[in-house]
Amino acid sequence: MSVSFRQVERDEEVEALAHMAHHIWNEYWPALIGQAQTDYMVEKFQSLNAFRADIADNGYEYWFIMDDEGDTPRIIGYTGGRTESETNRFFISKIYLLEEHRGRGIAAAVTRFYEQLCRDRGLAAMYLTVNKQNKMAIRAYEKQGFITVDAVETDIGEGFVMDDFIMEKPLA
Question: Which stretches make up the N-acetyltransferase domain (predicted)?
């Protein structure tokens, strides 16, 4: 599969990003964390207002993951994060794919994208958090050279907790 990345820049693209996030989260996460926590996390972290605040106030950048095969490229997922100058790393906040595109090696393309971005910015590493129950994602990240460096439980409010591994990939 030929994959490319298109930066989310215009407000209508941020709206499309939020719509896609709602769809992906509701097809994947209820089985792992329940519908109530899924709804809460979509509103808090994956909604139009959350994306707008991330971009405007927190230095986040987002990209659509594009399937370039066929006559017309199409959006199959999204990713995003931010440079952390204080740690000289890139925090990958989000990597999400539509269901029919999971398990097809796209994580490798996303990793290569971030490796190049980090090299271009002179960053020493990239890292992400992953739910401890998300075995498919953990395997994909390990296959791409990420190692687990910590485990954290984060209270996100309303009685919900994110129970994650922190995985990092140093860059040569």
Answer: 3-172
Contact between 69 and 2 (Cβ < 8 Å): yes
Q: Which amino acid, one-letter code, is at 79?
A: T
> The tokens of 152 are what?
């954290």
- Domain ranges, ordered by start, for the chain: 3-128
Q: Tens digit of pLDDT for each residue in 59-117?
A: 999 999 999 988 899 999 999 999 999 999 999 999 999 999 988 889 899 999 999 99
Could you give the 3-state DSSP secondary structure of residue 101? helix
Q: Is the pLDDT of residue 1 over 80?
A: no
Say if strands 89-97 and 74-84 run parallel, antiparallel, or are unpaired: antiparallel
Which range, of 4-13, 63-72, 109-118, 122-131, averages the lowest pLDDT?
Answer: 63-72
Closest CA to 171 of 117, 121, 128, 115: 115
Q: What sign has the CA pseudo-torsion 81, 83, 84, 89?
A: positive
CATH class label, 3-128: alpha beta
Amino acid at 20: M
